[in-house]
Amino acid sequence: MAQEVIKIKGGRLLNGKVDISGAKNSSVAIIPASLMSTGPVTLEGLPKISDVETLVSLLEDLNITTSLDGTTLSVDPTDIKNMVLPNHKVESLRASYYMMGAMLGRFKKCVIGLPGGCPLGPRPIDQHLKGFKALGAKVDETDGHTMKLEADKLIGANIYLDIVSVGATINIMLAASLAEGQTMIENAAKEPEVVDVANFLNSMGAKVSGAGTSSIKITGVERLHGSRHAIIPDRIEAGTYMCIAAASGERVVINNIIPKHVEPLTVKLKELGVGIEVGDDYMIVKSRNQYNSVDIKTLVYPGFATDLQQPITPLLFLADGPSFVTDTIYPERFKHVKELQNMNASIDSDRGTATIKPSTLKGADVYASDLRAGACLIV
């Protein structure tokens, strides 16, 4: 497969403005959730990414009528049919697991390829399956390629997640919305994307309360109706642009942003000494020649997001002393360190912590192992 190459000529200060896209992690859950409606749904503010196109294609495989026009998606599930979802599409997208909760809620039955090439044995979707089983579903994955979920009926239950999981929290919310009785999810994820999905479900007639806290209550309803919903702005994209502006921006205006959602990053950037003006739905970020050294530790929301520890790292080379970044969510997420070393960076990582010292970076050919590492190297 041919690799995409980005060539960057550094040394220029950035000026101007940027509009933030809709949240990816909301979109990839809300699109599957739309199939639970008995009437037309309109989703606004979707990001222009391949994940959205893949999920729309999966809806069409269920005989759902769709129309994607830029950032707006129209979904009409009137003639929906419960079909086995193709394995090759499901494998290409980890978030396709949200089709499980949506289809289980709608049909009480679903046959789907293992999401994202998910191996058998212990894996990230164990908490999802735990929730489905608690609601009364039987799980069969004996053939090793597909997963069959089936229930005579779904009945509300008290579910305690062993780990805080955004995916499991949302997936259980989807299935429980059309279950009989009340479901309580304890140790639930508090992320804004969870709240966004809950708001969408409620706009269709669901009864979800407590989203954004560790305890979410879902009272099942018989059916969901159509609605119109606007996706929240992507806090990770916003945070990435904030880091870019702080590192090399003279004055950058970031529009379509919810300041509360990026507050952990904003606080840390101000601690560094970055100039930030916060408005109702925008931020203005101004860079400086030198910053204060800081310590950063990633945590689940509302802590510092793991997806932003890589983009903020280049900024720390401008500090007046050593900084430390510890990732408690993904301790192995430091593949960018070797690439930064190729750019003359003084950085090392050990046991989930990177030590970053003041450095003058030089241009080099580097490889982005993942999306956030790519953002780091671009900064």
UniProtKB/TrEMBL annotation:
One Pfam family this chain carries?
EPSP_synthase
Q: Which keywords has UniProt assigned to this entry?
A: Cell cycle, Cell division, Cell shape, Cell wall biogenesis/degradation, Cytoplasm, Peptidoglycan synthesis, Pyruvate, Transferase
* GO cellular component terms given for this protein: cytoplasm
UniProt GO BP: cell division; cell wall organization; peptidoglycan biosynthetic process; regulation of cell shape; UDP-N-acetylgalactosamine biosynthetic process
EC number(s) for this protein? 2.5.1.7
Q: Where is the Enolpyruvate transferase domain?
A: 9-379
Quote the subcellular location field of this record. Answer: Cytoplasm
Q: In which pathway does it act?
A: Cell wall biogenesis; peptidoglycan biosynthesis
Q: What's the top EC group for this one?
A: transferase
- Which Gene Ontology molecular-function terms are recorded? UDP-N-acetylglucosamine 1-carboxyvinyltransferase activity
- Is Cell cycle included in the keywords of this UniProt record? yes
> Where mainly located?
cytoplasm
Reactions it catalyzes: phosphoenolpyruvate + UDP-N-acetyl-alpha-D-glucosamine = UDP-N-acetyl-3-O-(1-carboxyvinyl)-alpha-D-glucosamine + phosphate
The family classification in the record reads: Belongs to the EPSP synthase family. MurA subfamily.
Q: Would you tell me the protein name for this molecule?
A: UDP-N-acetylglucosamine 1-carboxyvinyltransferase
